[in-house]
Amino acid sequence: MCVNSNFWCEYISHESETTAGLTRIRLMAKYASMVVEGDSMAPTYNAGDWLAGRWARYKLTGAHRIKVGNVIVIEREEQPGIFYVKRVTQTRTSGGHMPTIYVSSDNPAGTDSRQWGWIPITSVRAKIWFRFKRA
């Protein structure tokens, strides 16, 4: 399932450049809303649903924040600019190597790590918190 992202900070981009305004923009840029496209996460999330989450680029130090069961947004190196919503089903760390995750679609017909294999943690772009508007 792909998503169209819409940074909340776009809505406040015309705010005055006061100290409070800059703080607010910096804080808001961490959070995002996105619209679901496709049915790979159905029945949990359906096309047209709006999701809220927090954007982040996970590095080696952030790997501990991603846990089995989390719903995340990934951007695969092979398809830059295309974002997928998936559920983490396994995590793997091995010595000094890059942590990797195995992701699944809630819909058995969806495309996920069964086709892609293990995904590097650096492909995680956001962690989804909740759906705030149904299609």
UniProtKB/TrEMBL annotation:
One of its GO terms (molecular function) is serine-type endopeptidase activity. This is Unannotated protein. InterPro entries: LexA/Signal_pep-like_sf, Peptidase_S26. Pfam families: Peptidase_S26. Residues 26-88 form the Peptidase S26 domain. One of its GO terms (biological process) is signal peptide processing.
